[in-house]
């Protein structure tokens, strides 16, 4: 039985979910409860447009009509007896992610969270800004999300855009050794319904993916030519609480990100992709720069590279 890749939206954030098609709604609610921090008996699940409540609570995901790419919304059931206790808890979680007061009136001091330097750093970084923690399994979900989006829109994602046939790209992006870049960021921005601002430390510029979609929230990543890390703020009152999601109508975080980009550029905190050395772990070939690596990948289908 195949799996279904869903997007969960709730007050504590937005999360990817991969579950079997024959999974029961009751088990789905248990998994949603863990991510949303809403008690199982207080969850109301909605999906579709306009969102409608899932009525067949005794059936399976398939019975409910859910399919890969769908967004499910978890809300508090107003008829639940535990709503008052839950309200306090969810409001606390909301403050963690979206609060203008945490940014303050001055340009904030933005911080960088270093994630593992593997071929999934983009996905791990996005997982951090979505969930507030490093989850090395994020890449598995997100690669599947991207592959499904590309497969379902072969006109937009043509060979000219992808640099390879659509089917080959889908197989390539599912490989854990494949790097993510602008195409993948754009797809994930659309899937999660948020603007993704990427700071390029080599050029000092900021690329805002999804800025034309009027998304309410923005997250920040920093890119040094070969590696992505997420950016965040610490709560002034509690350093253990972090803020990773910011209103798109507040440019103070953009100002802070631009200051960071300028500083990183002036101190040369980047890797020149035209000059760095890579080693192919499949055949041992040594390459100079991104262009040689791309040509080697086309000729050999090897994609397992490390900086050398």
TrEMBL record:
One of its GO terms (cellular component) is cytosol. GO terms for molecular function: cysteine-type deubiquitinase activity. Residues 4-81 form the Ubiquitin-like domain. The keyword Zinc-finger applies. It is an enzyme of class 3 (hydrolase). Residues 110-234 form the OTU domain. The keyword Transport does not apply. Its main location: cytoplasm. Keywords: Cytoplasm, Hydrolase, Metal-binding, Protease, Thiol protease, Ubl conjugation pathway, Zinc, Zinc-finger. It catalyses: Thiol-dependent hydrolysis of ester, thioester, amide, peptide and isopeptide bonds formed by the C-terminal Gly of ubiquitin (a 76-residue protein attached to proteins as an intracellular targeting signal). It is found in: Cytoplasm. GO terms for biological process: endoplasmic reticulum unfolded protein response; ERAD pathway; protein deubiquitination. Pfam families: OTU, OTU1_UBXL, zf-C2H2_OTU1_C. Its EC number is 3.4.19.12. Hydrolase that can remove conjugated ubiquitin from proteins and may therefore play an important regulatory role at the level of protein turnover by preventing degradation. PANTHER family: HIV-INDUCED PROTEIN-7-LIKE PROTEASE (PTHR13312), UBIQUITIN THIOESTERASE OTU1 (PTHR13312:SF0). This is Ubiquitin thioesterase OTU. It comes from Aphis glycines.
